[in-house]
Amino acid sequence: MRDIIQMIVVLAVLGAASGGGLALVKSGTAEKIEYQQLKFVKGPAILAIMEGCSNDPIVDRFKIPYGESDASHVDYGSGMSEWCANCHNGILNSEHKSGSGLFEHPAGNNAYLDSAVSRYNSYIKTGDFSGVQATAYLALVPFERGVYDPAQLNPTSTEGPDNTSRIMCLTCHRAHASAFQYAGRWDFGAELVADSHPAAGDGGVSGTDPYYSYYGRDMVSEFGASQRNLCEKCHDVPRDGYPPGW
Ligand code: HEC
Ligand code: HEC
Ligand code: HEC
């Protein structure tokens, strides 16, 4: 009988100790493993986005703002289009002729902005060409600086392009989809930004999707109701919008 009591006591002690141990391990690692909390984030752009957040994505998904602004953005150097071409080789090398559409456009390490440099730098919005190079960067229409050394990139730069700058796939497309067709940074088919998808009755988009696609910028109050399709940062935009109809 004594032996049995002794065994029960020993087992209880062992059980409590290992239970306590496990509880300690859990409470020590839950932040990292269970809540996926990120510590020691060093990227200044990421830190800027996460200001005021506890690094807990479950809680913070409602607090993290839209990522990019003209003065805080990914600063692209080179090779972005070539990366996309790992899978979309035809589009890169036959200038966007190889897909389902007929649209033709240069992109890539040789696609210099050329004649579009001065237009990009002076363009502020439809009808307003009073901009200057030092503040011309528009995060909604990014480009590559044409440099290979990351130390020459600056995510807070508001500088517009110069003659080493290039057009890339992400000048017009979002990397992770958008509210618009073909993952466009804007609605390629609408002449006016104010007339973009979704029109009344359109499906495939909900709530604040378009607002988030513009990184939380209220396009009509910032650019005006007569703002045309953002291809206009580099080109005149025809009345019927861009493809189809180009
Ligand atoms: C100047 C703006 C612009 C650039 C730069 C651009 N695209 Fe596009 N892309 C468009 C437009 C506009 C459409 C829709 C027109 C169409 O093809 O029917 C489109 C459509 C697409 C489509 C879907 C239809 C298709 O043709 O298969 C893919 C995929 C695509 N682009 C990939 C790319 C890749 C990859 C790059 C870089 C190599 C790139 N795009 C560069 C504007 C652009
Ligand atoms: C790992 C391969 C891969 C890479 C890398 C890749 N894509 Fe794609 N992409 C695909 C596939 C697959 C599809 C779907 C094709 C289909 O549905 O016919 C697609 C579709 C697209 C579409 C059409 C979306 C639509 O709504 O029709 C666009 C635009 C696009 N990609 C742009 C890009 C851009 C820009 C990059 C570089 C940032 C890129 N892709 C990198 C594989 C890739
Ligand atoms: C960042 C500047 C930039 C943006 C944004 C831009 N383009 Fe271009 N585009 C250029 C440059 C540079 C060229 C090549 C020089 C030229 O033909 O004027 C070009 C060429 C073209 C061409 C002639 C292509 C050929 O091979 O014949 C078309 C068409 C065109 N762009 C339409 C568009 C459309 C549509 C959009 C928006 C979806 C757009 N562009 C956005 C800079 C830009």
List keywords for this structure.
single chain, 246 residues, mainly alpha, 2 domains, 9 helices, binds heme C
Overall pLDDT level: 86
Low-pLDDT segments, ≥5 res: none
Largest sheet: none
User: How would you classify the quaternary structure?
Assistant: single chain
The number of domains: 2
Structural class by secondary-structure content: mainly alpha
Beta-strand percentage range: under 5%
Name every ligand kind in the structure: heme C
Radius of gyration: 26 Å
The SSE string, one letter per element, is HHHHHHHHH
The count of DSSP E runs of length 2 or more, i.e. the number of strands, is 0
Helicity range of the residues? 25-40%
Distance between the termini: 94 Å
Number of helices: 9
How would you portray this structure in words?
The chain is an all-alpha fold. The chain has helices at 2-33, 44-49, 57-60, 80-84, 89-93, 116-122, 169-172, 209-213, 219-223. The model has no long low-confidence stretch (mean pLDDT 86). The structure holds heme C (3 copies). One heme C binds next to helix 4, helix 5 and helix 7.
Condensed summary:
This protein is 30% helix and 0% strand.
List the helices and strands and how they pair.
Elements: H1 2-33, H2 44-49, H3 57-60, H4 80-84, H5 89-93, H6 116-122, H7 169-172, H8 209-213, H9 219-223
The structure holds heme C (HEC) (3 copies).
One heme C is lined by residues 95, 104-106, 113-116, 120, 141, 143, 167, 171-172, 188, 231, 233-235, 242, 246.
